[in-house]
Amino acid sequence: MDKRVVVQLVGELRKQYSVIAILKVLEIPRSTYYRWSNGVNEYKNEHEDLIIEICKSTNYRNGHRKIRSILKRKHHIHLNRNTVQKIMQKHHLQCKVKPKRKWKSQGGSEVIAPNILNRDFSASKPNEKWVTDITYLQYGSETLYLSTIIDLFNNEIVAYKLYNHQQIPLVIDTLEAALIKREYPEGVIIHSDQGSVYTSYTFQNYVKENHLIGSMSRRGNCWDNAVIESFHSNLKTEEFQYCKFNSLANLEVVSKIDHYIYHYNEERIQEKLGYLTPKEFGVMAA
After folding, report:
1. Can you give 184-216 as a three-state secondary structure string?
2. Whole-prediction pTM
3. Rounded to an integer, what distance in angstroms lies between the CA atom of residue 43 and that of residue 27?
4. What is the tens place of the pLDDT at every residue in 10-66?
5. What pLDDT, on the 0 to 100 scale, is given for residue 43?
6. N or C, fewer C-beta in 10 Å, the chain?
7. Which residues pair with 24 in a beta bridge?
8. Which one of 3.30.420.10, 3.40.50.1010, 3.20.20.70, 3.40.50.920 gives the CATH number of domain 129-285?
9. DSSP code at position 37
10. Per-residue pLDDT tens for 201-251?
């Protein structure tokens, strides 16, 4: 509510009601009202009316810098930029801010799933919780993108795909490969970050159609998906430690990824699994 309207209204009603009662109905603090009432009659710059008129005529599209320029160029009035800004703020004449364009992924609508996983990286059985993410690899003749799905029960890499793009087909194909390998389990929590491919309607619809449960990290919080972040970091450190960027052929990168994931699942022991490999732990648990 405009402060001048409030001050005027209180002035008219205070003959019948107390100021406190009026302000209570208007839900305005007394301190705010008295600050407003003291400011209504404050000094008015001689150019305020002109500035108000210029802002109206330009449909409030201009900020104080442009208004100052118009005053100088068209009306030969030289005012300090801060003075123009204060006058515009006083009368709520700030320019309209152009909203930032919200880019949508090629899947159309953006769907943000709740953080169901909530950093609970334990699972009591296979196909209870899967985590997924994409990382980029710059060791080949072009940048390649690795999409991976890990089962948190034994940290096994269930499925992975390596493409030369990070579009929706990459994550759809990875999830489809995992579903085929695990014979289409239902009720699995599939956790990702809020990347555009994961928030796309196409991916989220695929999750729903296959009776999975979508979960997402908080925006910009890598720790919410720490297990797969750690895996991708280990992969680059252990398999590509002595490789310079763009030093390999793409086929060599593919071969190294295949080799490392086989090593990770079949040969690399983990403390979390009682110093067993993911495959060994899965067999023993079965």
Report:
1. CCCCCEEEECCCHHHHEHHHHHHHHHCCCEEEE
2. 0.63
3. 28
4. 777 777 778 777 888 778 887 777 777 765 555 567 788 898 888 888 777 788 888
5. 52
6. C
7. none
8. 3.30.420.10
9. H
10. 999 999 999 999 999 999 888 899 999 999 999 999 999 988 999 999 999
